[in-house]
UniProtKB/TrEMBL annotation:
Keywords: ATP-binding, DNA-binding, Nucleotide-binding, Transcription, Transcription regulation. This is Sigma54 specific transcriptional regulator, Fis family. GO terms for biological process: regulation of DNA-templated transcription. InterPro entries: AAA+_ATPase, AAA_lid_NorR, FHA_dom, Homeodomain-like_sf, HTH_Fis, P-loop_NTPase, Sigma_54_int, Sigma_54_int_dom_ATP-bd_2. It comes from Candidatus Competibacter denitrificans Run_A_D11. Residues 50-99 form the FHA domain.
Length: 462
């Protein structure tokens, strides 16, 4: 049972709930200057690594003249805080022993130049307040699951922490990423990157960037997703598909907050908040050896599980009305059709609901949508106890047979084509013209998408 505790800003803290962690652990590196010219300075940073030195781009900026411009770096690792000297003139010491790289023991004192530091990892557990609201950012839903999700998003959004989203296809992972970015007050853009692109070289070049001449055919340089997302958020979708040999490179960027473009040896500093997502079980991929454990640890600092649509069936009317409004569909959904929507298993989740509503609206015109207009596959209804594979339904290749009054076949075909064209244009925009991502979002093979692009004369066909 829930026991809500109201707090001042109209939210409530729900003490017992089954689905999401209702507290979030934030890890931070805490630094205190004990002695030296900057004695008394204290800083706590929720970042995977922290730089110390006298140059202005350091996280801990010191004025000690015996300290180098870029003197040392501290990294959070699964085994504790790792202190690394960055080639300083006067060295880095732990308990007066000079080190090049060493874990910092508990209660140890670190020394750089004349400066003595206490460095420790700090874990803060924050309770998540569950708001009484039926939407947040791009998300709609008033169920307990959705409100818990809003609470988590609101708690995590303002922090720089890495977030990992897990949920079925079409369940709203990208929408959560957009909402997190929107509430984060990060000035830079949100860049969406799809790691499921089949060509591993393309993934590598597009993610990390490359310099001119890095490989045969690299006639120009490419910035790469990390640098495009500088000061903003990088959403890496389908992280489970990231080739094994690229995983250490991604880990390195996350740990050092520096990216080295392909073909270059010059690391470039980036300030990027990373959100990853997958429908796959990364933990079992780690066990199978197809996903690196250290990368999994770094990514899942805050794991968020998204409910499948069938798990929040009570939200279907709200989401359906929201989609009709967003897509400017004028058809009203009858009560019986709404009940059918609530009883269906939705393997393609909200994306499938959107497609079904768009199709039904075309078929019905001004008429109220009835259950038959939805053309839901019978074998997936009712949903109770029925957990189908998470394969999104494709846009139907044929014109469904309409019930009366029906538009002429030619008119229906034209309407359907117009909807399909609009869906493709919108999806291209959302996915920065990434065709593989568009094909996946729409649930159609890439070859079909390419044919449609040609047919509708959208963009340049390759
Ligand atoms: N709770 C929600 N409220 C409103 N719209 C939603 C919600 N969840 C998803 N959507 C909509 O459903 C569609 C699919 O969502 P989204 O692209 O975020 O899913 P996804 O989990 O990232 O899918 P994939 O795994 O295939 O990339 C989008 O149009 C999105 O706006």
């Amino acid at each position: 049972m829930l026991s809500p505790t109201p707090v001042a800003d109209g939210t409530e803290i729900i003490v017992a709930a089954a689905h999401l962690p209702l507290s979030v652990q934030f890890e931070a590196i805490e630094l205190r200057v004990l002695a030296g010219p900057d004695a008394g300075q204290e800083i706590s940073l929720g970042l995977p690594s922290v730089r110390i030195g006298t140059a202005s781009d350091n996280d801990l900026l010191l004025t000690d003249r015996a300290i180098s411009r870029r003197h040392a770096e501290i990294r959070m690792t699964p085994d504790g805080l790792l202190l690394r000297d960055l080639g300083s003139t006067n060295g880095t010491f732990i308990n007066d022993v000079r080190i090049t790289e060493a874990y910092i023991p508990e209660h140890a004192e670190c020394r750089l130049g004349y400066t003595r530091l206490s460095i420790r990892q700090h874990t803060e557990e924050r309770k998540v307040a569950v708001p009484r609201q039926d939407h947040l950012g791009e998300l709609v839903g008033a169920s307990e699951r959705m409100r818990e999700l809003y609470g988590l998003i609101r708690a995590v959004a303002p922090t720089p922490t890495t977030v990992h989203l897990h949920g079925e296809s079409g369940a709203g992972k990208e929408s959560v990423a957009r909402t997190l970015h929107g509430l984060s007050s990060r000035r830079g853009p949100l860049v969406v990157f799809d790691a499921s692109v089949t060509d591993p070289e393309m993934v590598r070049n597009d993610l990390f960037g490359h310099i001119k001449g890095a490989f045969t055919g690299a006639t120009g340089s490419r910035e790469g997703a990390f640098r495009q997302a500088n000061n903003g958020t990088l959403f890496i979708d389908e992280i489970g598909e990231l080739p094994l040999d690229l995983q250490p490179r991604l880990l390195r960027v996350l740990e050092t907050r520096e990216v080295i473009p392909i073909g270059s040896d010059k690391p470039l500093r980036v300030d990027v908040r990373v959100i990853t997502a997958t429908h796959r079980d990364l933990e079992s991929m780690v066990k199978d050896g197809t996903f690196r454990a250290d990368l999994f640890y770094r990514l899942s600092v805050v794991p968020i599980e998204l409910p499948a649509l069938r798990e929040i069936a009570e939200d279907i009317p709200l989401i359906a009305h929201h989609l009709c409004e967003r897509l400017q569909l004028n058809s009203r959904i009858s009560d019986t059709a709404m009940a059918a929507l609530q009883n269906y298993a939705w393997p393609g989740n909200v994306r499938e609901l959107r497609n079904v509503l768009e199709r039904a609206a075309v078929m019905c015109g001004e008429r109220e949508i009835q259950p038959d207009d939805l053309r839901l596959p019978k074998e997936l209804a009712p949903s109770k106890g029925n957990a189908p594979a998470a394969t999104p339904l494709a846009i139907p290749p044929t014109i469904p047979v309409a019930s009366t009054p029906k538009p002429s076949a030619a008119a229906a075909r034209a309407q359907l084509k117009e909807i399909e064209r609009r869906m493709i244009v919108d999806a291209l925009e959302r996915n920065q013209n990434n065709k593989a991502a568009v094909a996946r979002e729409l649930g159609i093979p890439l070859s079909t998408l390419k044919r449609r692009l040609k047919e509708y004369q959208i963009g340049e066909e390759d």
